Amino acid sequence: QVQLVESGGGSVQAGDSLSISCAASGFDFTIYTMGWFRQTPGKEREFVASDNWVQSDANYGDSVKARFSVSRDNAKNTLYLQMNNLKPEDTAIYYCARYMKPYTAIRGPRTANEFGSWGQGTQVTVSS
């Protein structure tokens, strides 16, 4: 079955960098667009970034553009999110997700209900 396992979260200071990963299994990772979302208590999941199955084609949420970078390693079935110049408002649980349909590239920020499989999340805490 589809499994997405995030790792690499932690506590950092404002201005620091952090990289989180998502190990995928149970499906053909190479043909799916993948995404990162984040959520804080009482709020809906917020789109952070997506990496289209066609490589070198990514989308970012407005709040993270120019600071975060999404990438994938198809040989390792792993999705990454490099987060630079972190701010306290980046504090959230970060989730990895698989887009609903294979062979589908997306443009612009998306909603969580367009993604069909989710990991358990990894906590990122940024202190000022």
Task: Output the keywords.
128 residues, four-stranded antiparallel beta sheet, globular, 11 strands
How are the SSEs ordered, and which strands pair?
Blueprint: E1 3-7, E2 10-13, E3 18-25, E4 34-39, E5 46-51, E6 58-60, E7 68-73, E8 78-83, E9 92-99, E10 115-118, E11 122-127
Parallel strand pairs: 2-11
Antiparallel strand pairs: 1-3, 3-8, 4-5, 4-9, 5-6, 7-8, 9-10, 9-11
What does this structure look like?
The protein has 128 residues and is mainly beta. The protein contains no helices and 11 strands. It is globular and about 40 Å long.
- Please give the number of β-strands: 11
Mean pLDDT: 96
Order of helices and strands: EEEEEEEEEEE
Nearest-angstrom radius of gyration? 13 Å
Percent helix: under 10%
Helix segment count?
Answer: 0
Entry summary:
The protein is mostly beta strands.
